[in-house]
Request: fold
Amino acid sequence: MATGPHLDFRIVQHGAYRNFEHLQLPPAQPVARSDWSDFVATRTQWLPLLPEPHAPQTSERTENAQASERGVLASSQ
Reply:
């Protein structure tokens, strides 16, 4: 059980979940200098369309988990 923000990172390959650490993925090449201006233009176009990151909100379940570690329930505070 997660008691706080976490990343659920999964890779599905041929219909089955795979451990990404064991996959033999080809290495990526850096953006070539000749393509850099196109890359920057595309990045500049798409970045504003992404949602703004925000601080995670504490859930009641997380507050209760933290409170139980202290020996009290959040609802009784």
In short: Residues 36-46 form the longest helix (11 residues). The mean pLDDT is 81.
